[in-house]
Design goal:
The protein is mostly helical and 79 residues long. It is built from four helices and no strands. The radius of gyration is 12 Å and the shape is globular. Keywords: Transcription, Transcription regulation.
Length: 79
């Protein structure tokens, strides 16, 4: 099982929430989330944003909007 850093996990959030990870990566993300309160909170905030945006899913957002959202989440993670 791969062990992810917080930065690596941030890059996998969308795939994780869409259930698009292969088994080893999914297990690695779940293990990381179980031991990292900051990343667990980050994923929950990301999930809440997706729900608040409703349709369309994040990958269907205009590129500039998605980029701004991802930047905001990365900056929030560093705080």
């Amino acid at each position: 099982m791969k062990r992810f850093t917080c930065d690596e996990l941030a890059g996998l959030v969308t795939a994780y929430l869409e259930d698009a990870l292969d088994r080893p990566d999914l297990d690695g993300v779940r293990t990381h989330l179980a031991t990292c309160e900051g990343c667990e909170r980050y994923v929950e905030q990301f999930r809440a944003t997706v729900v608040a945006l409703g349709d369309p899913p994040p990958e269907k957002l205009p590129a500039d909007v998605r980029s701004r959202l991802m930047s905001a989440f990365r900056e929030r993670r560093r705080l």
